[in-house]
Structure formats: C-alpha cells, structure tokens
Amino acid sequence: MKLVDVPAATIRCRNLIAGEWRDASSGETRDVVSPYTGSVVGTVPMSSASDVAAAVESAHHAWQSWRRTPLKERTQLLFRYREILLRDLDLLSHRAALEAGKTVEEARAGIMKGIEVAEFALSLQNLDDGGALEVSRGVTCEVRREPLGVCVGITPFNFPAMVPMWLYPIAVTLGNAFILKPSEKVPLTAVLQAERMLEAGFPKGVFSLVHGGRETVEALVDHPLVAGVGFVGSSGAARAVYTRASNRGARALCLGGAKNVLMITPDADPDVTIPGVVASFTGCAGQRCMAASLLVAVGDVDHLIDGIVERASQVRLGRDMGAIIDHGARERIVHDIDRAVAEGAKLRLDGRAPEAPEGYAQGAWLGPTILDHARADMECATKELFGPVITIVRVKNLEEALAIEASGTYGNACSVFTSSGAVARHVADRATSGMIGVNVGVPVPREPFSFGGTKTSRYGAGDVTGRQGVEHWSWLKKITTKWQMQGDATWMS
Ligand code: NAD
C-alpha cells in the first residue's frame, strides 16, 4: 500500500532572498532523508553569515515600503495565500508527510491548523483599531500598533507547515518583513510555502527563506537589523537563542520541549479516556510537544490501563501512525526504553522491533510502547523521549499526582481525565503547566487563544499565535496631541 507520494527526482532546495532563489554562497548542502523510505529525497543549502546578511539587508529594504502599505492591502495578499494553500493542500500534505514521517492525514491537519492562524491574522484588519481618548481639554492620546522590522522564525522538524505558520502570517500582516529558517531536516514544505507567498504577491524581500543549522541561526539572531525572534524547538536551543537575542536587545519568544502529564482517575469515562490517551501518545508518533508522555494513574485504574494497552496494541504502523524522524532518533528512543526496563519499569507494550509496513522496510519505525510501574524520579518519567512511548507512574491520590506535575522541569501541558467537575477544577487550579486539558488528550488552544507553556517549555514573555502573537510582533506608539484654537484671524471664529 502506498503511504505517501515520493517525487521522481531529488528536490534541490534553495534560499529565497530578495525574491530570488539562491544556493548557499559556500555551496555546502546536506541531504534530506525521508523517514518513510530512508532514502535521500532532497538537498538543503547550509547558509553562512554572508547569506544571512544578504537576506536581512534585503528584508530590511523591503520593510521600508511594506510597513507603509495599509493593513487592509497587506491583508488582501494573505487572503490570496490562504486560497493557494487550500488549492495545493494535497501536495503540501504529502510533502510534509514525506519529510517529517507523519501520516498524510496528520500532515493535512497540521496545515489546516496553520491556516487557522492565517485566518486569525486576516481578522486583524477588523479588530486592531487602536484607540484614542481626549485626556484633557484639547489634548488627545492615541495609540498605534507598529511593526518591529525584520523578524525571524526558527522552527523544528515535527510540524513543517504548522509551526512556521504559528509565526509568519501574524508577523507579516502586522507589517514586518519575515525570514524563515526551517529545520534542516524538513526544508521541502518550507520551499512550497515560500513559492506560494511569492505567487500570492508578497513583495520581494517581505518573506524570505534561509536554510541551515545552528551557525545560520546564530548569524540571524546576532544580526543587528533583526528586531524580533520567534523560536520553536528543544529547550536547550530555545534557551540559547533566547539568551543570545535578548542580550543584544532583540525581542524574543522561544518555545522549548515538553514532558506532558496526563492524569487518569477511577471515575474517568473509559470511552473518552482510552482513545484520548492512546491518540495523545501515538499521534505524530509521539513527536509533538503536546504528546502525552507521563501517565499518572490515580488510585485503582487498572481497567483503564488494560484498555489503553489493548487499544495501543492495535495501532497500525504507516496507516495510523507514522515514522520516527530518522534512524538516529529511533535508536536513541530504543536506548531510553532499554534503560527504563533495566531500572525496573514493566514493559506492557514493546514497540522496539515492529514489523515495517509493506514496501517501507528501510523506514525508521517504532511501535507504541508502554512502560508501567515506573518511579517518578526515573529518567523515562522526567526526560522528553519524543517518540510513541508513555510512562505510567502509579499514585494513591490526586495530591501526589499534582506534586509530580509541579516537580517537572517542563511546563507545556497537563490533562486530567475524570467525570467529576470538582476534580477537573482542582487540577486546572493547581497544575503548573501553561495548557490544561479536561478529558482532552492534546489540549491545544484554538485561535484566538494563544499557545505556550511555562518553565523550560518557554523562554520570554507571552505566547505564540492569537492575541499574544500580535503583541509579540508589534509595539505600541503613543501619540499625545494638543490643538487649541488660539489665532485671532477672523475666519477662525
Ligand atoms: P531542535 O532544537 O533540534 O531544532 C529546532 C531548530 O533550532 C532547528 O531549526 C535547528 O536548526 C535549530 N537549532 C538546533 N540546535 C540549535 C542551537 N544549539 N542553537 C540554535 N539553533 C539550533 O528541535 P527539533 O528536534 O527540530 O524539534 C523537536 C523539539 O521541538 C522537541 O523538543 C519538541 O518538544 C520541541 N517543540 C516544541 C514546541 C512548542 O510549542 N513548545 C512545538 C514543536 C516542537
């Protein structure tokens, strides 16, 4: 069975700078390998500081007229872009699936969520009317929202379309010029997005694409003309980028990794809980920052855990769940599972040696894995494994569950499955994570609500997307004006 479209020829990705497609000036490239096939499907340029400087300077030039283009005119281009993405949804979904290892349905859902952010940005023309008030006789205070200037977005491999779209539709609509530095593991979908931004009519330099790795990111973040940074990735890199950008006064919001906690209670509805938990830890093969990773079982919930094991054992690789990003990541996760077992966790479901889907023997496959009776201080209960693995810690009561949640170094998401409104409310009140779910395994806020965690899951103020995204990519100019009738010319009276 064919799981994803594979292009006939290798795709050569290039940078988009000043509206032109260019290779890295050094000529250096890296292979793009599909998690499905284990084969090279593209090449990506590894850009240096001189490529970055060219992109930033052209973006800065483009910004001079873009910032003066009325909001309603800027918005029209984003309307067109949205239509083009919907027209090409199949192509984008297959390309994102091919390079990130997702199922095509998951890739499509990610693109639609990205489009939802664009739709929020489209509504800004009707919402963002600023404000003005006569503060004393003849004196008016007025506030205007201004773009920051050249902004950059640095994004991870796991959502090739959605995470970039958390950032650039709002930033560009507000009048910024934007440079995207996608993950070097998934540059193909970013190229499709950039081509379509050009087709929609965004002026040259308003949207640019610069590929590369850490060196490219550092050159972007250090460039004095870059005023705003949005980063999404692992916590170590998020912290490094945040420190670097904010040290020189650039505005930065950097989202990091996660170890999301799901609590299940004896009164939870099995029909909601079992599919909710399994979808949360196996969706996107566990490679999403909202995936359930630590299941805290409160009291006697064996019937729920048996149901979770049974349902997870039926997940079909390739059809229901995609592949791990590469063989290196797959081996790292297998090693983490080995270690958890050696430390005493009980393996209820072992996905370490699954059968590959027919025709995809070279892919990086890992089946759903359930580690039961782990201790809360074990590595499998505290570290982000970023695979389809869930660790179960058993506790006697809700207080113990809340203490485990609070002790985590990450603070992205926490969900509780219960039939009690009082329990749900207690968890929502006490949990320390930025995003809380009640009977929802993946509590992603929808627009216009913003997305973001706490602790090491986020460095910087505010959240991405929604109303908080508007605050991040703009600043407020306050204008105080005094006009009084003073002249004695006869026409004035
Ligand atoms: P990553 O940190 O390896 O890479 C993310 C981006 O940063 C890439 O563009 C990469 O080129 C760049 N980068 C990597 N190391 C860097 C460094 N030291 N300095 C500067 N830039 C660097 O992350 P990944 O493996 O691509 O993605 C998975 C991670 O992203 C997971 O930890 C996941 O939880 C996290 N994530 C978080 C969110 C969120 O909203 N909090 C969303 C998606 C993914």
Automatic annotation (TrEMBL):
Q: Does the keyword Amino-acid biosynthesis apply?
A: no
What Pfam families does the record point to?
A: Aldedh
> What are the alphabetically sorted keywords of the record?
Oxidoreductase
- Entry-linked SUPFAM superfamilies: ALDH-like (SSF53720)
Quote one Gene Ontology molecular function term. Answer: methylmalonate-semialdehyde dehydrogenase (acylating, NAD) activity
What's a BP term from Gene Ontology annotated to this protein?
L-valine catabolic process
Q: Which residues form the Aldehyde dehydrogenase domain?
A: 21-478
Q: Which NCBIfam families has this protein been placed in?
A: MMSDH
Q: What is this protein called?
A: Methylmalonate-semialdehyde dehydrogenase
Species in which this protein is naturally found: Sandaracinus amylolyticus
